[in-house]
């Protein structure tokens, strides 16, 4: 019997851990799962244990030689290998024991989610342990060893002959996924992110539109630092509706980084919990409108693991299951359980208090700048649609 949504998770996903002080902290998975259980929004029957991706599956995107390097680094920090040339052993992506197995488990989680949706066992699937969008063919980058979304997209193409729309609302540009399919006309990538003028990885300009047969299937919306909810959502809603209507995907894969929030320590955007309520709503609607409901979602960035990520990813799962957005306070038992450990005071409510921050003096200027960027980014698409309509 087909279920509405499955939640891919196991304690093994917590093994993807660089160090005690690294900002990428998988404790956010534990916090999210615990919050959902306190809300009676997640039951044992919803949870599916992820499998580990095979070397053959990883090789759909990653060089076999790179996979072997990751395996070697997982076992020993050898002085004879220049690991940094492969992006590992760096400050961003340090080597840790069993790194290959932990990374392959996160990829396997997204592949598990894919199979549930594409084989018709579930309409939607969520793997919050995934979303490692900076991994490249032969190099780790930005906390990402393997790129689960890229592997999953290639897997969907080969196994299910799917036309895939990838939506990335992480504050950092989804560079690894974009470059993996830059010349592929059957994969459309959309990334809304803080401009690379201020933030890693420095890419994601509106001029990055694809190449060869894939030209016109890469879309980037670099928003200005200090962008607030209204401007973010205007870009998201306008761009997504127009692009989906043009591309007509078979399945949607969304990356749901939760680092565009005002509290995030690594970015400069001024989002509130409102965007994390609204982002999945439109993805959900369009999945049913164009893809018979097929929607796979993964996690991503998010470095305020106490005040932001658990609420954001809980709202994502609730939207997948048509659970009404909760109002009022978070569960007292959850707040009591974790407040002793949290280094910051919790926001006790589902939505953020208003105002959350002092007014931005440049709000009108930032909003107008973002609006102009949106128009430029969609200009070619609109011209193409106009040309088609007159044929």
Automatic annotation (TrEMBL):
GO molecular function: histone deacetylase activity
Biochemical pathway: Ketone degradation; acetoin degradation
Domain of life: Bacteria
InterPro entries tied to this protein: AcuC (IPR003085), HDACs (IPR000286), His_deacetylse_dom (IPR023801), His_deacetylse_dom_sf (IPR037138), Ureohydrolase_dom_sf (IPR023696)
Keyword Nucleotide-binding: no
Pfam families in alphabetical order: Hist_deacetyl
Family: Belongs to the histone deacetylase family.
Full protein name: Acetoin utilization protein AcuC
Lineage: Bacteria, Bacillati, Bacillota, Bacilli, Bacillales
